[in-house]
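assembly run, all chains below
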Amino acid sequence: MFSYLVQRLGTIIPTLFFVSILIFSLQQLLPGDAALILAGEDRDPNVVAYLRAKFHLDEPLPVRYLYWIGGVLQGDLGDSLRIQQPVLDLILQKLPVTVQLASMAMVIALVIGISAGIVSAVLKDSVWDYAANVVALWGLSTPNFWLGIMLILLFSVSLGWLPASGYVSPFEDLKASLASMIMPAFVLGNAIAAVLMRHTRSAMLQVLNADYVRTARAKGLVERIVVLKHALRNALIPIITLGALEFGTLLSGAVLTEQVFTIPGFGKLIVDAVFNRDYAVVQGVVLVTATTYITLNLLADLAYFLVNPRLRG
Amino acid sequence: MNFMSVTRGLGLAFVLAAGLTANPSQAQTLRIGLAEDPDVLDPTLARTFVGRIVFAGLCDKLFDLDEKLNLVPQLATAYEWGGDNKSLLIKIREGVTFHDGEKLDAAAVKFNLERHKTMAGSNRRTELTQITSIDVVDSYTVKLNLSAPFAPLLAVLTDRSGMMVSPKAAQELGDRFGTRPVCSGPFKFVERIAQDRIVLERHAGYWNSKEIHFDRLIYLPIVDATVRLANLKSGQLDFIERMAASDVPGLRGDNRFKLAKIVEIGYQGITINVGKSDLAKGNPLGRDAKVREAFELAIDRQGVVQVVMEGEGQPGNQWVSPENSYYAKGSPMVKRDVNKAKQLLREAGVTNPSFTLMTPTTSDAQKVAQVVQAMAKEAGFDVKIQSTEFATSLGLADKGQFEAYVLAWSGRPDPDGNLQQFYTCNAPNNYSGFCTKEMDDLIQDSRTKLDPKERLAAYEKIAAIAAREKPIVYLYHRNWLWAHTTKLSGLRTVPDGMVRVQGLKFN
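ok done. output:
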């Protein structure tokens, strides 16, 4: 176990090093002059020169990388070029927002997706099956920004039930927080629910035809126990894997949804940073996201190692 | 669990969430929806239009503007030009305190102007270049000594260059001042959550407190115009700036909201590369003023305004709108004349001139490019549209890698701010590359004319050259479109697009 852990950690360091170079280099490929954008409308040559020097934009690429990675190793991700706040502060501000949005979206997706998948498989070729498939197709084919604006028009403008956009921390006001997050979470969860529903349905159909399910029925178990206890448990394995992947994607920010609902999360942060050539923010956010992915991957590998005795060989 | 119960559950979740909605009526809080997230909140370093809207609540200036762009006192109470117009004496208002309790006096004004001039990365330095030194005459009088008479100076002091911050806070925070700005405006800084909100609260010691009727002021950047309007309609906002022209008809019939509009001090136009790089010589548009004249004659400005802005703008052919007192009437707007355009092209010996029109990817700019393309085609122009993300397009323009460019300018109260940096040789915003000694001298001369009549006469000469050479084809001036709840009153529509909070109140 210990040697496995050491071995896996050994691969993480070069991976992160490679990722950091990739993030830095790709960012530099963006056309346009960051200093020119940051200098604002007046584009005073003195200010442009000052910004170039301050953010080392006039230095060769490897030197700039060393400045950046040197700071990162000391826990300093630099300052936002645009609003001059430390990038780490911005990330710490946005991370809870993104985690809350992603978690709520996943709960909605799991509840809708798995329930509809089960109904669809159990009542195959019934009206419910067709209805669930139509809903899934709708979920997959509805653009997030359109659905978002429609929900705002219905629940905020027409009915006046929910705030149209914005974010309130759950620690500040739980009710207001849930109210502000329910629509964006539904928009995100809706699309994922459709994918989960399709996978649940096919996994359940496979399992429901398996010998042990037939045996369970032959034993005289009630259908509810057969479906929920025997079939669903086995069908859930690929669903959980898929759900975890979707959750990971959500954590890296839901750009369009955050934009429509003005949720100040990772997605909005990075898009604004790209358009404003705010290099430090883009690099910082992508680095944190990549590190999270790699860490989660490591934890998953360790979990496999623990649960599967054959891996311990 | 069946499908119906899932659906019911979801419906219940929405209803519950709706029931949970906290939408308290906060009578003393004014919530303003902004079209963008501001940049750094330090008047010396700030560089965005939207940032100036926040400063209007946060930082008072030496002078302000009224609805007719006349100068009115704010932190200064009086001024007087002296010594061959090479000095400006300013009387400072007594009894003004900064948000940290420090007093505003002549020494603080001197500190601020020197900070603007000397701080590393200052965006104010070029605006104040003509100030050579600042003398503290007495506790509430400063004298600005100038290298030459500079008529635009007073207008410059109505913007960020005239904003006064607490010297104590500025010294303590250094270049981090923008994270906790301390000024002397009606509201003081509480917190900023980037891309989410900027919260200000009433400055108890404000000198003009009788005009302030709110306890809190919250600015919420909501980029999407439709969502911004939805927030106003659903009661999450009290005021929105820069609403989309396409949303105006929908708001007109709703008596819960009021629409306010005023012609901007900026402009929308097409900048033509006439000398920025070799590309200028490579196409007839950049090479020949006659071809540019034909191009202008092919454009129906009113039509552009109608299509792009749904009529919410004013056609224009100069750096100021025809309503501005400094509009040069000797160079009037030409009407669309396709036949004359074709004739000019024949005279220039050019058939079907082709050029690439670079445009940022914003919706309005793209529409401008498409309408202009269609109109110019009728006169024989083959316009190819190159849509380019804004930062990239700016980089290309700076290097002269364009033939024509759809470019807007947010405008400055003094016409010089819309003119000098676009027409003088090597000025940073001179993307067209237009450069003549005659124009440089005329612009320099116009800046020394304190008498409005003399200045206008100078602008007539400048406008005549600009109309002849056409490095920039001006199209129109947008309407600033604001919408607010009808319970809000006291709004002043000043053409600079800033939302003045003094006098605003709920009925």
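Chain B has two domains: 4-12+20-238+487-506, 267-478.

The two ends of chain B are 52 Å apart (CA to CA).

not gonna interpret more than that til we talk
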